[in-house]
Specification:
The protein is of the alpha/beta class. About 10% of the residues are buried. The protein has a five-stranded mixed beta sheet with strand order 1-2-3-4-5, sandwiched between helices. The protein has three domains: about 55 residues, no CATH class; about 35 residues, no CATH class; about 120 residues, VSR Endonuclease (Endonuclease, Chain A, 3-Layer(aba) Sandwich).
Length: about 280
């Protein structure tokens, strides 16, 4: 169909919002296009091309950058940092230390939100699996956690490890390789209850480096929080079970390892009978 010069199309000046016919045609075209794209009959013209190779893309990039520059020049676009001098002030400027958690000092007894969270976790498990099965499932997760390899060690563990190596002890990859009196293993699950820091299988001795905060040292934290109380209780329970199974458990506090190395090294060597 040929149009004469000066012919005005019927849809000139109309849009989807103004005319329902235009909207209907647009929907039909988009449906057909989507179908053709999905079947692979139509390929996007700029697929696999970049600004360095394709002339059209280069032209597009130049024109878009020029229009942006023109808009900035005309004042249509304003830079986000206009009128702002120097670096922006961070949100935590003037705030010292870590920010206080919303639930600090709150418990199930005092706060409804925490109580609901705890009930939803435990309640869902019990509803889903039943009380007995929920306990079995928790135990399964705990035993699986013990089998997971520990990749990171703390600063005080690094200090102790270096001291042990300097004193002539040898680190092995697993307990079965330990055949000498001074052979030790780091972070291995034992007796199905814990992962000690250092294990001396031949001597049947366990060496743990306890962080003052995480294990609740009363000297520095007289008012223990819930986590610290639980950790201290677990430590006592582990010590008891390990002693019953014939292990000797040695524990040293973080502040003693860091600040009193002069006493720590000879004490460590005498406990492990290194020079005997």
């Amino acid at each position: 169909m040929k149009f004469k010069k000066g012919h005005v199309p019927w849809n000139k000046g109309l849009s989807k919002d103004k005319d329902p016919r235009v909207a209907e045609i647009g929907q039909k075209i988009s449906k057909v296009k989507k179908l053709l794209y999905s079947r692979g009959k139509i390929v996007i013209w700029n697929k696999g091309k970049n600004k360095k190779i394709d002339k059209r893309l280069i032209k597009q990039g130049i024109t878009s950058s020029l229009t942006k520059k023109n808009k900035y020049a005309c004042g249509e676009l304003v830079p986000w940092n206009k009128g702002k001098k120097g670096l922006q002030v961070p949100w935590n400027k003037g705030k010292k230390g870590l920010q206080v958690a919303w639930n600090k000092g709150l418990s199930k007894e005092t706060n409804l939100k925490i109580r609901r969270q705890a009930e939803s976790i435990t309640g869902n498990w019990e509803k889903k699996y039943g009380k007995e099965h929920a306990k079995q499932r928790i135990e399964k997760i705990r035993t699986a956690r013990l089998k997971q390899p520990v990749t990171k060690i703390s600063y005080i563990e690094k200090i102790t490890k270096q001291i042990l190596l300097d004193l002539g002890c040898k680190e092995k990859s697993n307990i079965t390789e330990c055949k000498d009196f001074l052979d030790f293993v780091c972070q291995e699950p034992i007796a199905g209850i814990c992962i000690p820091d250092f294990i001396f299988p031949v001597q049947k001795k366990i060496l743990n480096c306890d962080g003052d905060f995480w294990h609740g040292n009363i000297k520095f934290y007289p008012k223990l929080n819930k986590m610290q109380k639980k950790r201290r209780k677990n430590d006592k329970m582990q010590n008891k079970i390990l002693k019953e199974k014939g292990w000797i458990v040695l524990r040293f506090w973080e502040h003693f390892i860091k600040k009193d190395t002069g006493r720590y090294i000879p004490l460590l060597s005498s406990e492990l009978k290194i020079f005997e």
